Amino acid sequence: MSPSKLEIQSQDLEIHPRHSGAPAEPPGANTLERALRDLQVHQIELEQQNEELRRVQLERDAALARYLDLYDLAPVGYCTLDAQGQILEANLTAATLLGVARSALAQQRMNRFIALADQAPYDQLRRRLLATGQPQACDLRLVDPRGAPFWAHLEARAVASEPGGGLLRVTFFDVTARKAAEAALAQAATVQSAIFNSVHFLSIGTDTAGIIQVFNIGAETMLGYPAADVVNRMTLCDLTDPREVQDRAIALSAELGLPVAPGFEALVGKASRGREDIYDLTWLRRDGGRLPLAMSVSALQNPHDGIIGYLLMGTDNTARQRVNAERALLTQAIEAKNIELECARGRADEANLAKSNFLSSMSHELRTPLNAILGFAQLIEAGPPEPTPGQSASIGQVLKAGWYLLDLVNEILDLAKIDAGRVSLEIGPVDLAGVLQDCSDLVSEQAAKRGLSLIFPTFTPPCHVNADPTRLKQVLVNLLSNAIKFNHPGGTVTVEASPGRPGRQRIRVRDTGPGLAPAQIAQLFQPFNRLGQKDHVVEGTGVGLVVAKRLVELMNGVIGVESAVDQGSTFWIELDTADRPASAGPADAVAKPGLQPVARVRTVLYVEDNPANLALVEGILALRPDLRMLSASNGLRGIALARAERPDVILMDIGLPGMSGLEALTILTADPATRHIPVVALSAHAMPKEIQLAMAAGFFSYIPKPVRLAEFLATLDAALQCGDRVP
Asked: β-pairing, 627-632 with 602-607?
């Protein structure tokens, strides 16, 4: 204790002496001891007060922390605004709802977070609050910094006790779910009101005695009574046909197995038993008219499942009856149309059959003379005797024109078959590398004659597409032939393959020719349009690209072209990719027949009614001293010769007089003496379906006319070798 305090306490002691009656103590020592004791007591009291003060301070800090926790974590957002609407303070919930960090809320204006459409209601709320000092509240939409809106209930009040005044305390919380529920309820109420008050539906509610309690607008419109004249004044029986009510009572008694009295009970009998009740009933209008309605009746129940009345809803049955009548007429019209369509389909099938027969006949009639032209030209070219140089040149022209004419016939027939829908495809996984190799073999000689380079891609790993292998080869050969024909001498034809659209493979045929102008590109894929090449030295029919396009589309693919003048052309096709098929086993391998002629003389029987064709084959076989030929002009004669001579091979025309080649083959294969003889079809019937039918019947092979000399001899040698293997 400081000396000044000791002096003060000493003075106090002197002013207030002890009145004990004892002799006075020496002024020095006793007074100092008492002062020290009092000082110790006072010090203890001060320590107690300080301890109490620390306890109170801790409690206050704990209370403040609890308050701050409650303030920050309250389910309601709190913001303190100044008079200009700027945020001075906000709790954590407010920051979370607004999607902003709490530290970033300070100094921002509250209307920054108010949806644009709700700015006016918010401004009005602030003005009313500042003007009246009374708390204000409203629902409006708040938005976060990303612009995502949510509904909030917002309340604002003035903070009069704050220094400076003019402060506002704003609280808000998310009411989006409530707004959605309110909207759903409002929508449901609107729908229910619309249904109940629809002029198209009669709605009548009754009590348990049948007295009408509810009569909606639809009932007023349909029956012509105002609700005021009906409610609590009339029963259902007053408005319905009594004869129908009586008939219904009889029918309902039979259905329920209980007596049902005519009248109100007949109208609600099933509904009163908790069952669905739907029936037709005629109502009596105020003007005396009759209105048939389709009715639905249900019981109205209280919370204890007790029936308190009935609800009848009806729709105008006149309209339904009219609709049913119209539906019946429509059904009759549809049936008549179906019959008409069936007849049209039959006529179309007949037309397609006729077109198919015509195509087959045309193919036969065109190929038969071509067979003689090309066949004898090949014989003369092969010699002996060797033709002179002049004769060789003439024969070359004949063969060139003949094969060109055959290509023209094939393309036109292909186009006609596609248009008639008579093309059958066998689509499956096709090895693209194998197809392109075959195409290369077919066009390499043509390219070499013009000094062109052919570049084909390699495939690692193998690539497969979904296609018909024969038709795909036909399309690619057409594109390659065009790239060779319409190219500069010494140019290049490049084939590329790469992925196209997802799940597709694109094959491009690129040339270095003169290219195409936009006007020419627009005319591509038009039948017989050669883009101004009619008098050009380049041969062509203008049909090949059209056939290629339609074949590609039949294989679920697309075809296109990219070209520019003096920059060459690129024709491309795009097909679906396919999984690699299982590898063919040894049993699937087909051994190629040897083409060397056999040593001993063999007999070939040719069954043919056309003298020119007989002479042609006789001339071809004359080139082979190891072969002798027998001939028959019809199927019966051919069968007889086969049985008598047992030839090594039989060549059979299909379109024979009297008995067809197919019928003759059936007889030959049924006879044990001739069933082992290979029979080769040699026919101008070269449609794919005809070839398939013949091969399925059991022919060893099928040579379409006009014959190619090398192909004919190779097939003949294969048949001879097959006959040798038969015991």
From this structure: parallel
